[in-house]
């Protein structure tokens, strides 16, 4: 019962002697299951929960049947993942599979490099689905050439804007294609009574307290800011926040904030609250095209005549398009700690499990649920959810756990979602990659997360008018003096090795 205790540590306290007594029996059972390929494999999965509640067992049971496993999930809420995952890594309270999405987090990278997890690179080609993982995706998910888990395969770039199309139409505004036009939409959504209720109760941009997934990162890429780091022809690295394009974005966002076109409470707003503000008609611009269906669902009983439009191509006026790539198509790793997965045979069974989850049948279970109960295909072959509440309870939490989001393409019956899906795929043409994703810096592993807080704090303060440009530049210098310069040098050295 050792594995079961691992997944229950957050809820109960057990005597260490009892754990010790049961551990040997459980390990023996596990080894027997691994040896017998026909026996269900019991596994635990420390996973990230992106919804308010964990899923019911409806889909889990079907996944277990399809993959010949018995799965115990230990769900970690997305809002607390950084604290919970780093604590788990430090304490060793892990699971057979650990979802690691914070690939730039210094604690995560240090744990990966420490030898805590299996190197799965040599095994992927032995499985039909895993073998299809593109070389560039494997490279992006690796650290110094070592792949410490199966990468979650994502679209290269999912960012973009969602706007209230009904508000644009009411105000006689076109869908914007430049940053100046985006600014005008934000102004009009704030000042020109887009909902027609005669009350000053709307704001252009809704936002949240996450510099990476807020409007700032997306607007920054529209300005041409490098994604994380700029690398010149000589191999010199410059952090994004030390470029003119970043400063241009700061000034644009500050102007939005000063005039009230950016939600004034953005610095203390969580993602779920940002979504609720949009659903309630308080804001008209949302960052993240992938959330368009969720926003419509949240707003279905709150906003009459709601029309949404996803927008992905915004230029700074030069007609060029850029959008930052989230991990070069990698959404994190499904990693296998050696403390839990003790043998190669067990690792191979777990890899087979991940491989099976990429099969179309498992993909549809984790995406749509049960055909005829949760979803159907209409006469045009489009995918449509039949019962939203049931789908949210049974299926939605699994959708972010799919090992691959790109293996199959569904035509969505909702034209807004279908357009968003098409624009996300189109983003591949404009995706800007972070050159440090496959590189390593020991100093960044140790200090990077804490050092980033200096820049995040300075960015928020500048936008809110609590700091001057000189103050921001002093913060950048503090970052450099506190370890940033060493990080830069280490990335440059690692990059040069890849160019030989």
Report on the structure:
The protein is α/β, with parallel strands linked by helices. 44% of the residues lie in helices and 13% in strands. The chain contains 19 helices and 15 strands. Strands 2-1-3-12-4 form a five-stranded mixed β-sheet, with helices on both faces. Strands 6-9-5-10 form a four-stranded mixed β-sheet. Helix 3 (58-67) runs antiparallel to helix 14, helix 5 packs antiparallel against helix 18 and helix 18 (442-463) runs antiparallel to helix 19 (469-498). The longest helix is centred in the last third of the chain and has 30 residues, at 469-498. Residues 1-23 have low confidence and may be disordered.
Q: How is the secondary structure organized here?
A:
Blueprint: H1 2-8, H2 16-35, E1 41-49, H3 58-67, E2 69-77, H4 81-91, E3 97-100, H5 106-113, H6 135-141, E4 150-153, E5 161-164, H7 165-171, H8 179-191, E6 203-205, H9 215-222, E7 229-231, E8 237-239, H10 244-258, H11 271-279, E9 283-287, H12 292-299, E10 308-311, E11 323-324, E12 330-335, H13 344-357, H14 360-367, E13 375-377, E14 383-385, H15 388-394, H16 396-399, H17 415-426, E15 431-432, H18 442-463, H19 469-498
Parallel strand pairs: 1-2, 1-3, 6-9, 11-15
Antiparallel strand pairs: 3-12, 4-12, 5-9, 5-10, 7-8, 13-14
């Amino acid at each position: 019962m050792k594995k079961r205790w691992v997944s229950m540590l957050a809820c109960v306290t057990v005597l260490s002697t009892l754990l010790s007594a049961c551990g040997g029996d459980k390990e023996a059972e596990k080894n027997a299951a691994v040896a017998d390929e026909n026996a269900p494999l019991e596994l635990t999965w420390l996973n990230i929960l992106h919804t308010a509640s964990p899923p019911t067992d409806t889909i889990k049971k079907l996944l277990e049947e399809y993959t010949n496993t018995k799965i115990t999930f230990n769900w970690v809420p997305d809002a607390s993942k950084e604290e919970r995952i780093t604590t788990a890594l430090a304490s060793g309270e892990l699971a057979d599979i650990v979802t690691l999405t914070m690939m730039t987090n210094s604690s995560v990278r240090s744990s990966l490099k420490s030898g805590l997890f299996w190197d799965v690179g040599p095994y992927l080609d032995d499985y039909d689905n895993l073998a299809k993982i593109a070389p560039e995706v494997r490279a992006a998910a690796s650290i110094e050439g070592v792949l410490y888990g199966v990468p979650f395969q994502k679209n290269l770039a999912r960012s973009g804007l969602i706007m209230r199309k009904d508000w644009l139409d009411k105000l006689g505004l076109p869908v914007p294609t430049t940053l100046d036009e985006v600014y005008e939409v934000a102004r009009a959504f704030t000042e020109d009574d887009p909902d027609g209720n005669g009350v000053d109760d709307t704001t252009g941009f809704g936002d949240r307290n996450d510099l990476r997934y807020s409007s700032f990162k997306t607007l920054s890429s529209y300005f041409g800011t490098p994604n994380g780091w700029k690398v010149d022809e000589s191999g010199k690295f410059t952090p994004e926040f030390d470029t003119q394009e970043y400063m241009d974005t700061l000034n644009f966002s500050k102007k939005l904030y000063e005039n009230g076109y950016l939600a004034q409470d953005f610095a203390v707003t969580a993602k779920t609250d940002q979504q609720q503000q949009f659903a309630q008609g308080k804001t008209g611009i949302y960052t993240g095209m992938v959330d368009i269906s969720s926003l419509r669902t949240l707003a279905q009983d709150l906003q009459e005549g709601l029309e949404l439009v996803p927008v992905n191509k915004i230029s700074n006026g030069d007609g060029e398009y850029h959008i930052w790539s989230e991990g070069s198509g990698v959404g994190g790793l499904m990693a296998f700690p050696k403390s839990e997965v003790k043998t190669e045979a067990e690792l191979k069974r777990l890899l087979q499990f991940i491989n099976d989850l990429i099969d179309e049948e498992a993909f549809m279970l984790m995406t749509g649920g049960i055909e005829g109960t949760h979803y159907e295909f209409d006469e045009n072959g489009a995918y449509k959810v039949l019962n939203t509440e049931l789908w949210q309870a049974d299926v939605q939490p699994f959708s972010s756990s799919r090992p691959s989001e790109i293996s199959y393409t569904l035509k969505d019956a909702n034209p807004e979602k279908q357009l968003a899906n098409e624009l996300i795929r189109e983003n591949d043409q404009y995706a800007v990659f972070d050159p440090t994703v496959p590189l390593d810096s020991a100093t960044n592993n140790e200090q990077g997360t804490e050092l980033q807080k200096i820049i995040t704090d300075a960015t928020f303060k500048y936008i809110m008018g609590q700091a001057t440009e000189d103050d921001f530049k002093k913060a950048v210098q503090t970052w450099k003096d506190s370890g940033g310069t060493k990080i830069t040098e280490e990335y440059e050295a690692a990059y040069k090795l890849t160019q030989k």
